[in-house]
Amino acid sequence: MTRLFIPKDAAALALGAEKVAAKVLAEAQARGVDVEIVRTGSRGMLFLEPLIEVETAEGRVGYGPVKASDVSSLFDAGLLNGGAHALGIGRVEDHPYLKRQTRLTFARCGIVDPVSLADYAALDGWKGLARAIEIGPAATIAEVTASGLRGRGGAGFPTGIKWKTVSEAPADRRYIVCNADEGDSGTFADRMIIEGDPFALIEGMAIAGVAVGATRGYVYCRSEYPHAIKTFNEAIAVARAAGYLGPNILGSGLAFDLEMRTGAGAYVCGEETALLDSLEGKRGIVRAKPPLPAHKGLFGRPTVINNVLSLVAVPHILAKGGEFYASFGMGRSRGTMPIQIAGNVRFGGLFETAFGLSLGEIVEDIGGGTRSGRPIRAVQCGGPLGAYLPVSQFDTPFDYEAFSKKDALIGHGGVVVFDDTVDMAQMARFAMEFCAIESCGKCTPCRIGSTRGVETVDRIRAGVKVEENIALLEDLCNTMKFGSLCALGGFAPYPVTSALRHFPEDFAPRHAIAAE
Amino acid sequence: MGGTMSGASNWNAERAAQIINEHLGLEGPMLPILHALQDEFGYVSADAVPMIAKALNLSRAEVHGVTSFYHDFRHEPAGRHVLKLCRGESCQSMGSEELARKFLAGRGLEWGGTTADGDLTVEAIYCLGLCACSPAAMLDDELIGRLDAETLAEAVDTVSI
């Protein structure tokens, strides 16, 4: 029997993977050939989705992007033996897009059946957890610290230090909370890994539990990801039945169990304290810090709250050692970052690599420029609260500190490409509008400032007292940046001020009149 | 997840009480209860608010505060089908705003509106995580990537009766 692999990743489904899989099955039956279709996550080469892979003696051979109407001709070309076809990409592992990557966090994604324990174990699964149990909490935290891993949600706080703080906080119980509220436009790494390799997140959370003495974990996933929620709940059930979760994980005598919770469409719940309030059943309102969640988090207990990518990096760090992970990267940005290349781009997808590639390499060499074929004009990094960078800054290395020096942020690793038709004043307005829609309302700079921001950009675009209003907008951005309680109001000015600085021509009255 | 009226049932206080009860063993049961009610009925009825308040020992104001805070929870039934068009930056870079503007105008709708025959509700969504295949949308439970005016109209006409 021939094994075929077709993703059930949400992006692959959005591009027709379900129809392709059904057609492959029907075609095989009609031709009387025996095939097994394994539904995997995505390799992250989303420009090739739906990508069909077939197991051959030479390894997995791929075809993509496949439409249902291509399936018959694929069979004619000898799909099941890796035969030549216009859609053929050869051995998937040899594809330059994959070959250039350093896949640590996404090592299994797109290869394994997401809920197969056998597949997971065959590719180093559970080794990190076994080692954490063996070396104990203090040495586990030391490994994570030595890895230099910093919070992949965007803030870049050292994970090891967070864990140590929680482990030392006196408490009757502690919690592990995974932030899977991946709301930034241009990001999809959390979704992909939860759909493609959910056991890695379960293992990472269990290791965190062992490290800090927590017995209960929650994954807070946004409701916009129904496929991720479904896959993860399946994975929890499978892991629990096999003793990887429950009262006695891996026979260690240690207990750890977890539950997935669904958000309800509030972007601000990606902010960790708003997320905790939401988990507790309240409005997702940002808390003032201190106290830190590490001291008083979920239900007032010490809580490790980490992003999906931080937690998924952990099993690898424990299995291979912190030093190995730290050997990748540059400066204080150690390890790898799954960069998500999105927007108006030819080769959009997930590209995991050590920190340090330049922005230009990411969007031009790897991303292949725009999908529209027009010149790139701007790139927004780090989601709706991230700066717009012009082509003149494409030499900026992808690194927390280098970006911060340019008044920009890496955030969760999303890179959104815009071509030269973009109206940057409109994008600045949208940043303020989005902040107004999503503000939790607790602090005034964010709640009121964002609405005043929209009005001010509107006046500028209408050509009303342009200079005065630009000065006012900059002043408002300054107030929001330094006066807001959390990153929503605090970072919403980044897209606005970067648009003003790098694309002033879009705010000129002449342009405003022309645009109307 | 916005349920659609096609799979939803009429409001039933007894069934609602049962749903609330099923979740009382959870830590922080509020959001799971609200999601379960919406999945069952297609919206969170105002009649559910005092029931939840009583079960969780909260004031009605606190429960109302939660139901009104989150974009997901509906206070009245949606149309038979729900189309969520992404307005995130990534989709905007591929022309989603114009696509949406034309689609809404063509159906005589504003964001959040429902067609007169109750068939289709169109809502904005801020990112479906399909940013490498923008513009994206979710029609009921189906995801659609690389949308254009034609594929969007075709998808909507296919589900419409």
UniProtKB/TrEMBL annotation, chain A:
Cofactor: FMN; [4Fe-4S] cluster
Keywords, in A-Z order: 4Fe-4S, Iron, Iron-sulfur, Metal-binding
A molecular function GO annotation: metal ion binding
Pfam families: Complex1_51K, NADH_4Fe-4S
Domain of life: Bacteria
Residue ranges constituting the NADH-ubiquinone oxidoreductase 51kDa subunit iron-sulphur binding domain according to the UniProt record: 425-470
Family to which this protein belongs: Belongs to the complex I 51 kDa subunit family.
Function, as annotated: NDH-1 shuttles electrons from NADH, via FMN and iron-sulfur (Fe-S) centers, to quinones in the respiratory chain. The immediate electron acceptor for the enzyme in this species is believed to be ubiquinone. Couples the redox reaction to proton translocation (for every two electrons transferred, four hydrogen ions are translocated across the cytoplasmic membrane), and thus conserves the redox energy in a proton gradient.
Protein name as catalogued: Formate dehydrogenase
Automatic annotation (TrEMBL), chain B:
Cofactor(s) of this protein: [2Fe-2S] cluster
Stored CDD domains: TRX_Fd_NuoE_FDH_gamma
Residues binding [2Fe-2S] cluster, per UniProt: 86, 91, 127, 131
GO molecular function, a single term: metal ion binding
Keywords assigned by UniProt, alphabetized: 2Fe-2S, Iron, Iron-sulfur, Metal-binding
Keyword presence, Cell division: no
Cofactor details (free text): Binds 1 [2Fe-2S] cluster.
Domain of life according to the entry: Bacteria
Classification via Gene3D superfamilies: Glutaredoxin, NADH-quinone oxidoreductase subunit E
InterPro entries assigned: NADP_DH_HndA-like, NuoE-like, NuoE_N, Thioredoxin-like_sf
Cited Pfam families: 2Fe-2S_thioredx
Family to which the UniProt record says this protein belongs: Belongs to the complex I 24 kDa subunit family.
NCBIfam families reported in the protein's UniProt record: PRK05988.1 (NF004638)
PANTHER family (UniProt xref): BIFURCATING [FEFE] HYDROGENASE GAMMA SUBUNIT, NADH-QUINONE OXIDOREDUCTASE, E SUBUNIT
This protein's name: Formate dehydrogenase subunit gamma
Organism: Methylocella silvestris
